[in-house]
Amino acid sequence: MFSAFFNPTPADPTAPNLHPVSETHKSDLFGQLETKDLEWTCAGGFTTETQIFYHFLEDETMIMCQVIHSSIGMWYPTIQFTCKIYNPKTKETIWRSINVSNFVTPPPGLDKRSCKADQFSITCKPSADPSHPEIYVIRANLSDDLQVSLDVSRPASVPGFKVGKGPKGGFSYFGPDLEKPEGYVVHRFWPRTAASGHIIHKGQAIVAKGTGMLVHAIQGMRPNLIASRWNFAHFQSNDHGGVSAIQMEFTTLDTHGRHGAGSGGATVNVGSLVLGGKLAVVTAETRWPDEVPEEAPIMSRAIHLNAVHDADTGYKQPSALEFSWAGPSILTDSPGTVSASLSVDVGGPSAPKGLVEKVDVLAEIPYVIKTMVNYVAGTKPYIYQWQNHAKLNLRGPDAILPGLSEGLEIEGILYNEASFIS
């Protein structure tokens, strides 16, 4: 990633220096994950790698478990395990973030999809159940009063995916030279998972059974140089044999765009739809600042509505959001185009709806990282987190779901984030 310091200035300063995954893999959006895709790379330089498990339990409690591996130049990497448990009925939030010791990948006898430290272990292995052939076994002792034990499995009918086939599938690259990029972003997903196990909090056991997703992501550049904004949506429903809709979206700074420095503000979005318990659609779209987005055969969009200034953070937070998906079915027995949309009212700063937390990022990340990342003076990154009931509006071939051609409304739970970096 240091190539930018040694390469001469490109002959054409208006040459593209953002190469989004939606543009480089237009003809093969669905790339099935291979074993290597979910292995820890633990890359050096300025790289942040993370593995996150999100789940909704049967009582609608949300649990998030995350491992973060942060490399900061010549410094020894920092590895964190974070866990958030939010009960929307009681509004109780349990939060732990610990720097772990003696991190190892792979553990003895396992491959690099697995990792462990003194405080936790995550083991990826084949399952004895052919209907859920792969499983992650998570065991974490996060404090004297919080232990987590979860088994997270992937249904056989919902393969893990990245956007695009092959070793470069999933990657968006930064810099004018694709062969020597200045940085990159990559996401790999299990878009619908089943979780079972228990949580022990203050000596009380909580049964943990539900559905969710996994994302393994890498930012191969300083995070404040990659994006000014992020959006994330995670919708799950058990109706119609299992439905999920997910999106991950980032907006570049002015430094990276289709015409070099000064043409940034491009928005790159990847997503998927699981319908009837099967992965049906993979979406990817880039919206350029000099284009007015219109209806398109492939859409993957998160739109903020009615933004209001929030005195707590200094940012204009959305009062509502709209998410949309459209693309061809990847199910060989059910060809056709599928579209989906979802709207959520999250309220304003004075009357929030479903607000889990406004996360002050600088208060959570390790001190070493904080001092190495030069955020713009006077700005503080914040992540808004919400959980609400939502309705996903679907349309597509009846061969996927009966009645889909006339439109279906799926009720479920949405967890979504809006991150403001600068």
Automatic annotation (TrEMBL):
GO CC annotation: cytoplasm
Cytoplasm in keyword set: yes
Pfam families, per database record: Svf1, Svf1_C
SUPFAM superfamilies according to UniProt: AttH-like
Domain Svf1-like C-terminal, chain residue ranges per copy: 221-422
Subcellular localization: Cytoplasm
Top-rank taxon, per record: Eukaryota
Residue ranges of every copy of the Svf1-like N-terminal domain listed in the record: 48-219
GO annotation (BP), single: response to oxidative stress
Record keywords: Cytoplasm
Family: Belongs to the SVF1 family.
Name this polypeptide is given: Oxidative stress survival Svf1-like protein
Organism from which the protein derives: Hydnomerulius pinastri MD-312
